[in-house]
Amino acid sequence: MPAGVGDPHLGSGGGRGGPTLIGMRVVSLLPAATEIVAALGAMGQLVGVSHECDFPPGVRSLPRVTGTSIDPELPSDAIDRAMAEAKRAGTSPITVDLKLVAHLRPDVLIGQSVCEVCAVGEGELARVVSELMPTPWVVTLHAHTLEGVLTDIGKIGEALELRDEAEELVDGLRYRLRRVEGLQGERRPRVLVLEWLDPPYVAGHWVPELVSLAGGHDVGGIAGERSRARPWSELVTLAPDLVVVALCGFDVERARSELANVADADARSLLAGGGRTEIIDGNAYTSRPGPRLVDAAELLSRLMRG
Predict the structure, then answer these.
(1) How many Å is the Cα radius of gyration of the chain?
(2) Are 145 and 206 in contact (CB under 8 A)?
(3) Strand, coil or helix: what is 15?
(4) What's the pTM?
(5) Can you tell me the distance from the alpha carbon of 220 to that of 227, in angstroms, rounded to the nearest whole number?
(6) What pLDDT tens digit does each residue of the chain (306 aa) get?
(7) Strand partners, 217
(8) Between the CA of residue 105 and those of 18, 28, 193, what are the distances in Å?
């Protein structure tokens, strides 16, 4: 049995040999999984998605099986405090409509174990699955690196019996990444990617790899490691040539608003200093471990080339 598919700790389809494509019903608990299912040509199999799933646009009409107790319109510092408080209290800011999930009767349920605050965590996923009958086939995504993301695409393809489609998708993504790498210039600009501004968080996981593939040197994050908070007084000493603001879960408009409200003196020095500051849609391109990370690499490559 492939790792992460039919995890025996989370239910393995009630002893089945795996689901079949005919009549398969899929519930996705995170946007990246939804995008992967759609990229495999199986969007018609989706019967429920998370409250954050918005791509491709067709998924917006599907039932929402999760919600959040945190108002996304709050200022970023208030959101950060609410997330921290939920973590201290041992509660999740993400809620699951168990009754709706049960009503949808999924054959396959896709969750994750990367972040406990941005999506349904592994513990909550296990609780949900334990309440469902019949038990769905569970795919748990674990990626912290680009290679891990490609592996997770294979896991979903395996669960949906779309192995050939997954292989073709992965091969196409690898080809595009090689093309991005081939466009690198001789000079590697110093790049800092911020995924949150109040407090400042430096993007980790797969983002430093994207920067490197695009021809830059990430001066703040470490590939494969979690994003982490670093004070402005420390970040300003990194002297990046390019600062990329890619807010986790937010679009360009929200990032522009947050950027305009940054008051810290070191932050203003960093963001308005000798280097460039660019904004990209973090929600679409860097936050989600799915196919559009390759779009992010292509976008970063263009930014670095001028």
Answers:
(1) 20
(2) yes
(3) coil
(4) 0.89
(5) 10
(6) 233 344 433 433 333 444 444 568 999 999 999 999 999 999 999 999 999 999 999 999 999 999 988 899 999 999 999 888 887 887 778 889 999 999 999 999 999 866 655 667 677 788 888 888 999 999 999 899 999 999 999 999 999 999 999 999 999 999 999 999 988 888 899 999 999 999 999 999 999 999 999 999 999 999 999 999 999 999 999 999 999 999 999 999 999 999 999 999 999 999 887 789 999 999 999 999 999 999 999 999 999 987
(7) 190
(8) 15, 12, 41
